[in-house]
């Protein structure tokens, strides 16, 4: 027979201390909001060249000083989804410069399939929903 009640108080203290530490970090350090919550720009591109790697795509965007850049490979080989947080620029000219710079850096047949902006309204709704979900989970 296993005596589960023997360690009841110790594990309650451990659990309570972990919750207090989590709340302490949440209050004083805050949350690290990603691009989905802050807003930003999303670019989907396709590279026809076989020798272009995800690290090459990431390096071509990191050199543009766009802030936090997130590059993911999805779908078939050569399809990439790039998200970055920089929002304070002239969209038409900056997107044109980004496209030209990336095409020159990667030196292949690059097709920009879509360019979208994630606005602060969507981000605000995501933030409120996320905080509500965290609060309800902590209360439960």
Written description of the protein model:
This protein is an alpha+beta fold and 140 residues long. The chain is built from 5 helices and 4 strands, in the order ααβαββαβα. Helix content is 50%, strand content 20%. Strands 2-3-1-4 form a 4-stranded antiparallel β-sheet. A hairpin with a 5-residue loop joins strand 2 and strand 3. The model has no long low-confidence stretch (mean pLDDT 81).
What is the element layout, followed by pairings?
Blueprint: H1 8-28, H2 35-38, E1 40-47, H3 54-62, E2 69-73, E3 79-84, H4 91-106, E4 110-118, H5 120-139
Antiparallel strand pairs: 1-3, 1-4, 2-3
Helix pairs in contact: 3-4
Strand order of the largest sheet: 2-3-1-4
Percent of sequence in beta strands:
15-25%
Number of strands: 4
Helix count, DSSP H or I runs of 4 or more residues: 5
Biggest sheet, in brief? 4 strands, antiparallel
Helical fraction equals 40-55%
Using the alpha-carbon principal axes, give the shape. elongated
Q: List the secondary-structure elements in sequence, H or E.
A: HHEHEEHEH
The averaged pLDDT comes out at 81
Helix-and-strand structural type = alpha+beta
The poorly predicted ranges are: none
What is the rounded Rg? 22 Å
Distance between the termini: 31 Å
């Amino acid at each position: 027979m296993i005596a589960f009640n023997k360690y009841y108080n110790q594990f309650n203290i451990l659990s309570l201390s972990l919750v207090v530490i989590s709340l302490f970090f949440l209050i004083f350090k805050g949350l690290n909001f990603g691009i989905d919550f802050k807003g930003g720009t999303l670019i989907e591109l396709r590279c026809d060249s076989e020798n272009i790697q995800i690290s090459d795509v990431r390096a071509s965007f990191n050199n543009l000083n766009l802030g936090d850049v997130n590059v993911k490979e999805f779908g078939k080989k050569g399809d990439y989804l790039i998200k970055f947080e920089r929002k304070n620029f002239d969209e038409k000219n900056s997107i044109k410069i980004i496209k030209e710079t990336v095409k020159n850096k990667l030196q292949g047949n690059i097709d920009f399939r879509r360019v979208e902006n994630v606005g602060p309204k969507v981000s605000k709704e995501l933030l409120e929903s996320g905080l509500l979900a965290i609060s309800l989970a902590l209360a439960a």
